[in-house]
User: Fold this.
Amino acid sequence: APESPMSSSESVKSLTELVQQPCPAIETSKDGKSQESSEPPASESQSTTPLPLSGHSALSIQELVAMSPELDTYGITKRVKEVLTDNNLGQRLFGETILGLTQGSVSDLLARPKPWHKLSLKGREPFVRMQLWLNDPNNVEKLMDMKRMEKKAYMKRRHSSVSDSQSCESSSAGIDYSQGASPQPQHQLKKPRVVLAPEEKEALKRAYQQKPYPSPKTIEELATQLNLKTSTVINWFHNYRSRIRRELFIEEIQAGSQSQAGSSDSPSARSSRAAHSSEGDSCDGVDAEGPPEGKPSGPEADEFSNAAAKSQGGPAEAAFEAGEEALRGARPSERAEPESLEDTDDEGRPRAAPRQSSPPAPQQRQGDALETLPNSATEGDASTSAASTSVLTGESSYKSKESSEKISSVPSTSSTPGAGSQKSNSLQSLFGFSEAASSRNTRDSSLRKKKAANLNNIIHRLEKAASREEAVEWEF
DNA sequence: TTAAAGTCAATAGA
DNA sequence: TCTATTGACTTTAA
Assistant:
């Protein structure tokens, strides 16, 4: 119902109020924690929303999200981070009371926000909440109060626990397992968290480089060689792909904002800028992943290395990157474990690589993994790392393409102010700002490289899929 | 079914 | 403590 245009003004009004009014829910809950934790998981998608908006009946958060104009996710997170740090408020508190998310999720969200048009409705929710929170003049105070209350509750618990030992423990859901009491052994033994060794990660990365979307068979082989469960390998690929993608998003956003020169980094500046440039290419950068429809969009090798190195840092990564660098011209190297994945040779190994990872190519994973890139690579090296090399080297071939870069740009879905109509305008005012996707300046060469690599990958996959014959037709 | 998106939650680091 | 990372799980689309 709220959908209808006419209601927009009303909506705005109620929303405004909503944002402004103190949240009773929060105030009353003595231990924010329980409130949070009690959040009905099931209702998640439902309109019921615990958290700050709860008391409000007018619009559900989902409706708000649906009506929200395009938000500058990067700008929002930036501001949120500032407010939190300036006021010494933690992510946990903020996440649990304002967003209904755990600390880790908040951290991730704040560090790597995806562009608005890349978010699903569900994914936009936290950003809308953040925006509303930012608009709330009492936001900090409320959170501070929460913090105080939590502390108080904690102290209380502690005291009581001293006197009456265990009782409270169970009730406190969470925070106090610090010491005490071994939680009853009854816990089903949770399966221990798998922690991949650096060498394993490297091996997986290398495999990814060769084939971002490995076949079941390849996965099986990888699992066997690394002595991991198949599901772990599958999960790893899923996670890696998606994380790489996000990494790319933010890099582009940042690159874009930087290149914008003059303007300060203030979000507003950025947004206005974005708004202008927006039209077509606004998201082009962001869309690096390629054709929406084709699942095989692909993350690209190059980017992958950067992102990986960046996000994970660490010697291993560095080594990896170095290796890649080497690969660019030739091949990586390293090894170590008996069973390794591909590659080969050696010399390159050391330098950066603290660890050595992996293995040689036992037998070529023939089938797919390795041989995948039939044509591209210059086979120079042949066997061993031919495949990977090909991906990397492919870059050169793309260079030319780079110039034409816009291809990837798929207009960002949302935004389009025009279409929006007044509804969006009013909502925009509601949210207190206007935003458009960030615009990027492709000047940045590294970015270009990534894009090129990305294209490379995409093309390659497409060609392969089409048994390469008409790949040519695809105009990019 | 597969992949992506979104999260959780354990845990590593500071 | 707090934040960052990341393997696993759940949900959603296609």
Notes: Residues 230-259 of chain A form the longest helix (30 residues). Residues 18 and 53 of chain A are 7 Å apart (CA to CA). Residues 44-45, 90-92, 103-104, 106-108, 110-111, 120, 122, 191, 193-196, 231-232, 235-236, 238-239, 243, 293, 295, 311-312 of chain A lie near DNA strand C (CB under 10 Å from a C1'). The mean pLDDT of chain A is 57.
